[in-house]
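ok so i was messing around last nite and threw this chain in just to see what happens. nothing serious, just curious
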Amino acid sequence: MKLFAKEALKNGFNFFMIEQRGSYSIIRLAKKKNRKYLSTLQGGSFEKFEECIYDIDGAINFLRKLGINKIYLEGHSTGCQKITYYQYKKKNRKVKALLLFAPADDYNIQKQELGRRFNKIITEAKNIYKKNKNAMMPKPLELQYSIRRFLSFSDSKFVESRIFNYNLPRLKEFSAIKEPILAVFGSEEQYALKPVNVYMNILAKNTNSKLFTPLIIKGANHGFDGHEKALARESINWIRKIEQN
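result:
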């Protein structure tokens, strides 16, 4: 992010990175009500995916108060689902484009990792969910997620699991985005269940964006380790082209 910020500033753009209720594994948030503090468990283990719109909205409103009226949303990994869902729900006119870095297929990754146990575990998780949404996943899985968080990306009834499920005939939320989109994968994406060029073709087939730009960075993995400069440079150049049009 430091390299990205440096590249942005060098080209005359502001760069603003936020933490949100899904940051870290487990955090406790508290709010004061009737002279008492009420706390909730959040973080990646407990967050409710749909609430990401509040964090993104808060960041955009903060920037607008500073006089910034053109917003380019960038997300990495699960961040891609979050900014896509945000713009799908809010249709914020201040958002001029989306930059999706490694929009992985969390649903099918989880399905592959659990193998034959997948359906049984989903059924068990649903039964627990009815009683306690915030219960942790049971042993012997040792997954550091609450039941709700696990089902959010592992049960196709939840929106998070569908946004970039590349096996679906249609990517509903992604297809609704009209703004320009830059989609970036590394050629060595370790979580890819299909060749990354197939992922790009699926996105291209589903997009209704004014300008959809696929980009594969050779040699890069899911975290773009060692290729951060290339990612930053290509991304900022893409934004500059949009600004010029």
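not much to say yet. The domain at 2-12+22-104+170-244 is CATH 3.40.50.1820 (Rossmann fold).
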